[in-house]
Write a structure and sequence with these properties.
Chain A: Residues 96-237 form the B12-binding domain. The complex is a heterodimer. By secondary structure, chain A is of the alpha/beta class. Chain A has helices spanning 4-19, 23-35, 40-60, 66-84, 111-122, 136-146, 161-173, 190-194, 204-213, 226-229, 237-243, 245-259, 268-291, 294-310, 316-328, 333-348, and strands spanning 98-103, 126-131, 150-154, 178-181, 199-201. Helices cover 60% and strands 7% of the residues of chain A. In chain B, helix 3 (87-114) runs antiparallel to helix 4 (119-133), helix 3 runs parallel beside helix 6 and helix 4 runs antiparallel to helix 6 (239-273). The chains are: A alpha/beta, B alpha+beta.
Chain lengths: 359, 531
């Protein structure tokens, strides 16, 4: 809230440096702002976080390349490290207690978790930051050794929700409460609630507030299975569709070729891209089945339509893909309904530019 | 059997009824002789019209016995009460429900205790549950560490307090014995007045009425002792409760020793593993290094792939980078990588001649009792002005890939035989240069042999790796490494895989000293702490 104008200017300057791949410039912007009195927390959450968000938006709008996206993220990571490692950094001793910050296994977007870890450190917590790609067994072993007050579990991509669920259950089974956060857990943290995370926080500041209040230890005497939290899993549709992913992708590819003879002239790389897109669609479909929310699938489809449009690929190809997919899944009512709602959402979705795109 | 008339007067009592109701002479009023439940029931029956409609059996105490009462209404309006002594069944039922409650508590205790392998947490849970189910307060005394004992205090309805203090163990009757695992003094023989103050949890409403000291039997070694306290206003511990306390202590002891054993093992593993873990890479003498490692089994941290960066003694000296792959995976292979890494470290002064180093290593491996061979790449790196000079040698390993600024991905033309198999190693070293922004990538076959993709079961392959690298032009070293690992991981999409190691060597872009310079470096994004 303090000095919003100044922060906006800093965000703009940092964005310039980061998008140019100018690591030195990026560091200078942030350290100058620090010297001029902007707090470290404000730099992390009101400058670096929005810049990172913009990296994603610009990639979606096809205005920066994958390489630029990775380079920008790497620079942001280094700028954060340079803030944390300053000799005069006022990090304290962790008197508030110990917490673990980790990404869901398979999640590559580590920066949001990193920001939360840094902010919690500023607030006096001793933070074990396990980062991205932490296999759940490592996380559990770490919890046994350190007995933290809570695990903060970060997820960006919704397709990791089934893994997140297993992780949440594993942490709770050994008596450590889980605070979930990140875009994967849906608007208002609705999937965090479905997966029975102990708490959910919208952002780093909210996470600080939740930890301030304290989270009671989960009851470990109750034995819980996934189907206890998500009774709809009893219909086995998720299990079946997830297991049939390779066959579904293959068959969809074959059927699409039958419908669009032009596909036969695709290069191997083009075919692989198409197969990847289909696989991705199936992944989101299964995730929607897991949390029983067709809205999750519809959201993915409209987002993909935006991405395709930004790259001048006709988005109606998505509808044909759904049609073909539905043809293979007629035995699964919940799945069919999810696809149907997705198709409806997609056809009603007016083609519009990617958010933030300048026309 | 009693016969009572409609006015509530006793008409007759049989022989069996007389000992129960000594004052039961005919003509006396029923309500003066029997408890209210029976007198009231009689009243109710006679007031009901017609009086014969009585159904349910009644139960209640008469004196210290328990009876079922079955009324039969006679034609004259008298009620015949049949009393059935049910005391023994009742006692058995009470005992059964006690046993049930205790076994429920024990089962809850077991699953709660077994859920954690953390010693302090385990002690906290054990003390809290003891205070909740067994006593007003509980103190868990862990075996002394040196002269101090870890103490866990729990009181009903209060948070658990844990401290480590020097205490007089001998001051509590039976405690020293319990800590040694010898059978302690039975509760009935402990005089509450003998209990020293340090045992009392803060806020305990003394004085103490009764005490139990129970040993926590461990796996071969004592796991500590549990002191249970009740204040004098509460009932003293019964013999049954004492037995129950011992059962509870056995469960807690087993869980605690499991936790202690796990912690010990995990600490030993961490210590032994320390040197086998891949090192954190950072900028050295003006050249950027980044590495990433993923073991084939997700629950392991080490495997048969390895890498190291040995900084030159000064900016003008060459830095030696090693990346390799030992045949096999898992811990056995990891132990072997440790030997190779140590041997290469010792051979650093000879690094000017890669082939010579490889032959010395080969000799060492051939004479070792491990029959494993390895493939590896050596890269000697030195910065000259803004360019980075590389000498690259492959010993039976995939040649390094170089990402040029124009988007070309070149394969270094080095070739050689693997080490640890043949009497001699033949290898050709090639030299090349990186312009600012260019990257040289060393990797193991875990990347290219990753099976998966949208259609499953397809090899990732070198072509895909090169295509991925072509998108990495002018990216910082860490970003390249992360990108390669990410694409490979996505290709696998959860499938099985071999160990995967990647190291990137990058010439920094012109005029871009890194912010991490002079600040300790370390790979940003990872600050692991394990204890």
């Amino acid at each position: 809230m303090s000095e919003p104008v100044a922060t906006t200017a800093v965000v703009e300057r940092l964005w310039q440096a980061v998008s140019d791949g100018d690591e030195h410039g990026a560091a200078r912007v942030v350290h100058d702002a620090l010297a001029e009195g902007t707090s470290e927390e404000a730099l992390l959450l009101d400058v670096i976080a929005p810049v990172q968000e913009r990296v994603g938006v610009e990639w979606a709008a096809d205005r920066i390349t994958v390489a630029q996206e990775h380079a920008a993220t790497a620079i942001n990571e280094r700028v954060i490290a340079s803030l944390a490692h300053r000799p005069d950094s006022r990090r304290n001793t962790g008197h508030r207690g110990r917490v673990v910050v980790s990404c869901v296994d398979g999640e590559w977007h580590a920066l949001p978790a990193r920001l939360v870890a840094e902010v919690l450190t500023l607030h006096g917590w001793r933070v074990d930051y396990l980062g991205a790609q932490t296999p759940t067994p490592h996380l559990v072993a770490h919890l046994h050794l350190t007995n933290p007050a809570a695990v903060l579990l970060s997820g960006s991509l919704p397709t990791h929700l089934p893994t997140a669920h297993a992780t949440i259950t594993a942490c709770q089974a050994i008596g450590v409460p889980v605070l979930a956060g990140g875009r994967a857990f849906g608007p208002g943290g609705r999937y965090a609630k479905k997966l029975r995370a102990d708490r959910w926080a919208a952002d780093a500041r909210a996470a600080v507030a939740v930890l301030d209040q304290g989270i009671p230890r989960p009851d470990t005497s109750a034995i819980r299975h996934a189907v206890d939290d998500l009774p709809h899993l009893a219909d086995q549709e998720y299990t079946w569709v997830a297991r049939s992913r390779p066959q579904l992708v293959k068959q969809t590819l074959v059927d699409l070729e039958g419908r669009f003879p032009a596909m036969r002239t695709y290069s191997d790389a083009q075919l692989e891209r198409t197969a990847e897109d289909i696989a991705h669609t199936v992944d989101f479909l299964t995730t929607a089945l897991y949390v029983d929310d067709p809205g999750l699938f519809a959201g993915f489809l409209t987002w993909t339509a935006d991405i395709l449009t930004a790259r001048n690929v006709p988005a109606h190809s998505l509808l044909s893909g759904l049609d073909v997919l539905a043809g293979q899944l007629h035995d699964f009512p919940r799945t069919l309904k999810t696809i149907e709602l997705g198709s409806t959402a997609l056809s009603e979705y007016a083609v519009r530019p990617v958010p933030g795109a300048r026309a | 059997m009693l016969v009572v008339d409609r006015h509530g007067r006793l008409v007759r009592a049989n022989d069996a009824a007389r000992p129960i109701l000594p004052g039961a002479a005919s003509g006396v009023r029923l309500h003066e002789q029997v408890p209210a439940w029976l007198a009231d029931a009689h009243q109710q029956i006679v007031e009901t019209a017609p009086p014969s409609t009585v159904t349910r059996a009644l139960r209640g105490n008469i004196g210290d016995r328990f009876f079922e009462a079955h009324p039969t209404v006679g034609a004259d309006g008298d009620v015949m009460w049949w009393l059935v002594d049910d005391t023994d069944r009742r006692l058995a039922e009470t005992a059964l429900s006690d046993v049930r409650r205790r076994s429920e508590v024990l089962s809850a205790v077991s699953s709660t205790l077994l859920s954690t392998l953390n010693v302090p947490r385990c002690m906290e849970v054990a003390a809290a549950m003891a205070a909740e189910h067994l006593a007003e307060a509980a103190v868990l005394v862990a075996p002394p560490q040196g002269r101090r004992c870890p103490l866990t205090f729990a009181r009903q309805g209060a948070p658990v307090v844990q401290t480590t203090r020097q205490v007089d163990v001998a001051g509590v009757p039976g405690l020293a014995e319990a800590l040694q695992g010898f059978p302690p003094v039975p509760a009935r023989w402990i005089n509450p007045a003998d209990i020293p103050d340090w045992v009392l949890p803060e806020g305990f409403a003394g004085p103490i009425g009764s005490v139990i000291v129970a040993p926590l039997p461990g796996h071969g070694v004592p796991a500590g002792a549990l002191i249970l306290l009740r204040s004098s206003t509460e009932q003293a511990f019964t013999e049954g409760e004492e037995v129950f306390a011992r059962l509870f202590a056995a469960r807690a002891g087993a869980a605690l020793s499991a936790a202690r054993l796990y912690t010990e093992q995990a600490t030993i593993t961490a210590t032994l593993m320390q040197d086998l873990l891949p090192p954190a890479l950072h900028r050295v003498h003006g050249v950027e290094y980044a590495g990433s490692y993923r073991a084939s089994r997700d629950h392991e941290r080490v495997g048969g792939d390895f890498y190291d960066v040995h900084p030159g003694t000064g900016p003008s000296q060459e830095t030696l980078v090693v990346l390799g792959d030992v045949a096999g995976k898992g811990l056995d292979a990891a132990v072997m990588t440790g030997k190779i890494r140590n041997t290469l470290h010792a051979l650093l002064p000879l690094a000017e001649n890669h082939e010579h180093v490889l032959n010395l290593l080969n000799g060492a491996l051939l004479t070792s009792r491990h029959a494993r061979f390895a493939t590896l790449v050596l890269a000697s790196v030195r910065r000259r002005a803004d360019r980075v000079r590389l000498r690259l040698t492959s010993a039976g390993h995939m040649p390094p890939l170089i990402v040029r600024n124009d988007g070309a991905v070149e394969e270094a033309a080095t070739k050689g035989t693997l080490v640890g198999a043949l009497p001699a190693v033949a290898a050709r070293t090639v030299e090349t240069e990186l312009a600012p922004g260019e990257t040289c990538l060393l990797y193991t076959d875990g990347i290219t042999e990753a099976r998966g993709g949208p259609l499953v079961d397809e090899l990732f392959g070198e072509e895909r790796l090169k295509r991925a690298l072509a998108e990495c032009v002018r990216m910082p070293a860490e970003a390249v490494v992360e990108r390669v690992q990410m694409i490979a991981a996505q290709w696998l999409s959860g499938g099985r895989h071999d160990d995967m190691a990647v190291v990137a060597i990058s010439a920094p872009k012109a005029g871009a000293p890194t912010v991490a310079d002079g600040q300790g470096g370390g790979r940003p994004g990872r600050s692991r702490s394990s204890e």
